[in-house]
Amino acid sequence: MSLTKNMLVILLVSLLSFPVLADTAGKLAGIIVDKETGEFLPGANVLIEGTSLGAASDEEGEFYILNIPPGHYTIRVVYIGYNDFVMTNLLIRSDLTTKLNVEL
């Protein structure tokens, strides 16, 4: 009988802790374009300062960065021939996608 109780307790603890582990990261996604022409800028680098996280935009200017711990970040977008774009205090939330469209 006590073995069944112990198994039940272990099962309940496991199930209750699962939702806490599920919501531990967010996502950043957007499009990078030329401010004057509206053309996509493929190969632009998107960096989350203070981390090793980043991405490069694809041929349609789109980028995404996964598994970002929740918090406030400074985002830097770098593309050769353009001034850097910097956004400070961008909030990344657990289990959500934060959109950031950039015109350089």
How confident overall, as mean pLDDT?
A: 88
End-to-end separation: 68 Å
Rg on CA atoms, Å: 20 Å
- Please trace the helix and strand order, writing H or E for each element: HEEEEEEEE
Which range best describes the helical content: under 10%, 10-25%, 25-40%, 40-55%, 55-70% or over 70%?
10-25%
General form: elongated
The counted number of beta strands is: 8
Q: Hey, roughly how much beta strand do the residues contain?
A: 35-45%
**From the helix content, strand content and strand pairing, which structural class follows?**
alpha/beta
Low-confidence stretches: none
Which terms would index this structure?
single chain, 104 residues, alpha/beta, 4-stranded antiparallel sheet, 8 strands, 41% strand
Gist of the model:
Helix content is 20%, strand content 41%.
How would you describe this protein?
The structure is a single chain. This protein has 104 residues and is an alpha/beta fold. The protein has one helix and eight strands. It has one helix at residues 2-22, and strands at 26-33, 45-48, 54-56, 62-68, 71-78, 85-92, 97-99, 102-103. The strands form two sheets. Strands 1, 4, 7 and 8 form a four-stranded mixed sheet that branches. Strands 3-2-5-6 form a four-stranded antiparallel sheet, with no helix packed on it. β5 and β6 (85-92) form a beta hairpin. The longest helix has 21 residues, at 2-22. It is elongated and about 70 Å long. The N and C termini lie far apart (68 Å). The model has no long low-confidence stretch (mean pLDDT 88).
List the helices and strands and how they pair.
Layout: H1 2-22, E1 26-33, E2 45-48, E3 54-56, E4 62-68, E5 71-78, E6 85-92, E7 97-99, E8 102-103
Parallel strand pairs: 1-7, 1-8
Antiparallel strand pairs: 1-4, 2-3, 2-5, 5-6
